[in-house]
Design brief:
single chain, alpha+beta, five-stranded antiparallel beta sheet, four-stranded antiparallel beta sheet, 26 helices, 15 strands, binds zinc ion
Length: 588
């Protein structure tokens, strides 16, 4: 993909795939490789590997793999040229002046840049309102009343949108084109097409993207205006379902503490963060989306959900919990006494008490079992109801082993003795409903050891490579093997004078063969010698002879059975050939 001498090639030479992937996946060194949880499929035990020398990644679970650019393209959903720039920036490689982009691309980029700048200006505007206007002062009093001091207001960038309906519009009209204002998500249009301020008489919470740039606002009404919470509309820089509130500030704590506290809204986030738990985030919508879960999964796979599960939004809460369960997060539930939300609980009871309860949060299913136990379990009918309540949750756990563990646990906890109920629990654990499992046809261990070792020698051994490639080609030893296309591509590359680079080869192979190549590339090699190479070649020759002998034997039996005059002539020829082959195979 990368032309020699091109900028892409230079980036590729200098880029460190471990460092780039490490920004998305928590990697641990294991042997000569690094491994972690695959960001492309849900899993609990790491099957995702990065090879620092060969500069490739490969998932032994779902089969994805490629070089550093492919990884960034998949993660960022961007094009190849964009991935080069991203990798260069991440690795501190100077990027040459931007090439001429297509007109639309340039327009789109300009729009995004202008919108980000406009949001920065809007944050400053809302902040000043809080500071400098009588109306804003009333808003500040309201915030102070809720325990938000100056420092907190500054730290979270809170502001105020005045009630007039055109304050922001008047401030921005001189600076920005009407069309840009219309596209910003900060204004609405009336029936006659005129713009007016979307946010009026609201406390403003800036919403930043992962990089910390303000891309939208959430506004909480000060009076009785509905809705109580209002967000910016969707724009080219903001998609509600793809942003997690406070993630930009929580990133480091998420990685360090390796769990997230998921709360409902802005005030809860601020309250929990002020109590010393920076690893707090909010979905700020109805329920958590899959995109948000994936985003979070890049930082941690453990979540304590601190919603109020019995609130009006219970359906949404359950959806979030279920989604996290399906995405194989380790989910715990923190339910605060008295049905309090985190913000008011911390205010009433203190940070220390909150921290203590946080540490005791039960696993989601334990929490559900406790709920099920509240129903009357003395009758068989009551137990049936409880089991039916729990069944759908069990069926959503992707891991079969975990499902059956939970089924056993439920049977014990609910004292389910009845064989019928036990049976249906067992069935629920065996089946899995309402989800697609990403389980591709695995190529695991395709190819015999000798083939795999040859592929490895061709990639790794500078001394043996040339001679091996020549012998394989001369005798066409790769024909009919499971690694046939992999070997053919390697031999071709070597004999045409190239260095066999797995990443580059992989780009030209079919998916199955690429997977096979990468799997082998990740096996650790050890010392090499020509004797070993020779013994691998011999194994292939023997394999071929055995196959030929087996085919011959079949033909001999067929001819012997037919008993026609011609067949005895043919049979003699076949038997002679068999003798030759047998002799040959004895010499190998
Ligand atoms: Zn995977």
């Amino acid at each position: 993909m990368a032309e020699p001498g091109s900028f892409a090639d230079r980036v590729k030479q200098q880029a460190d795939i471990v460092r780039v992937v490490g920004e998305y996946v928590r990697l641990k060194k294991s042997g000569q490789n690094y491994s972690g949880l695959c960001p492309f499929h849900s899993e609990k035990t790491p099957s995702f590997a990065v090879h620092p020398v060969k500069q490739i990644y490969h998932c032994f679970g779902c089969g994805v793999g490629g070089d550093v650019f492919k990884f960034v393209m998949e993660m960022e959903k961007c094009t190849f040229p964009e991935s080069i720039r991203i990798v260069a920036e991440k690795c501190g490689i100077a990027v040459p002046a931007p090439r001429e982009r297509s007109p639309e691309e340039r327009r789109e980029n300009q729009l995004r840049t202008a919108l980000v700048e406009m949001h920065q200006a809007a944050a400053v505007f809302f902040d000043r309102q809080l500071e400098a206007t009588p109306e804003g002062k009333a808003a500040r009093a309201y915030l102070e009343d809720r325990g938000l001091d100056k420092e907190t207001i500054a730290r979270f960038g809170l502001g105020y949108a005045p009630s007039g309906g055109d304050a922001l519009l008047r401030a921005f009209r001189a600076k920005y084109a009407e069309k840009l204002l219309g596209a910003s998500g900060l204004f609405s249009t009336d029936a006659s097409g005129r713009l007016y301020d979307r946010f009026r008489r609201r406390i403003m919470f800036p919403i930043a993207n992962e990089a910390g740039k303000v891309v939208a606002f959430g506004g909480r009404s000060l009076g009785d205006d509905m809705p109580k919470y209002l967000n910016s509309s969707e724009t080219p820089i903001y998609s509600k379902s793809a942003v997690l509130y406070h993630l930009d500030k929580a990133k480091e704590a998420l990685r360090q503490r390796d769990f997230a506290i998921l709360v409902e809204g802005y005030m809860d986030t601020i309250g929990v963060a002020r109590a010393g738990h920076m690893n707090v985030i909010a979905s700020c919508g109805t329920s958590l989306t899959e995109t948000q879960a994936k985003l979070l999964g890049r930082f941690t796979r453990r979540v304590v959900v601190n919603y109020d599960p019995d609130s009006a939004g219970q359906a949404a809460t359950e959806r979030s919990l279920t989604l996290l369960l399906e995405q194989e997060f380790d989910v715990r539930v923190l339910q605060l006494p008295g049905g309090k939300d985190p913000d008011s609980f911390i205010k009433a009871e203190g940070a220390e008490k909150y921290g203590k309860l946080l540490g005791q949060s039960p696993a989601y299913l334990d929490y559900l079992i406790a709920r099920a136990r509240q129903t009357d379990l003395t009758s068989g009918e009551g137990k049936l109801r409880a089991v039916n309540f729990l069944m759908p949750y069990i069926q959503r756990i992707p891991n079969r082993l975990l499902r059956s563990e939970w089924a056993t646990k439920i049977a014990e906890q609910l004292r389910v003795e009845e064989p019928v109920l036990r049976e249906s629990l067992k069935r629920a654990a065996a089946e899995r409903r309402s989800n697609v499992q990403t389980n591709p046809e695995l190529v695991a261990r395709a190819g015999k050891p000798a083939e795999r070792r040859l592929v490895q020698l061709l990639i790794e051994s500078d001394d043996l490579r040339q001679r091996l490639a020549e012998e394989i080609r001369a005798e066409e030893l790769h024909r009919g093997l499971e690694t046939e296309r992999v070997l053919a591509a390697l031999v071709e590359m070597i004999l045409s004078g190239g260095r066999p680079d797995p990443a580059e080869l992989g780009g030209n192979l079919e998916d199955r063969d690429r997977r096979l190549l990468f799997e082998i590339a990740f096996e650790s090699g050890g010392a090499t010698s020509w004797e070993e190479a020779e013994s691998c070649l011999a194994a292939l020759r023997r394999g071929r002879l055995d196959a030929e002998l087996a085919a011959l034997q079949k033909e001999i039996e067929a001819q012997a059975a037919s008993k026609s005059p011609e067949s005895s002539e043919a049979l003699r020829g076949l038997l002679q050939r068999k003798q030759e082959l047998t002799k040959l195979s004895q010499r190998l």
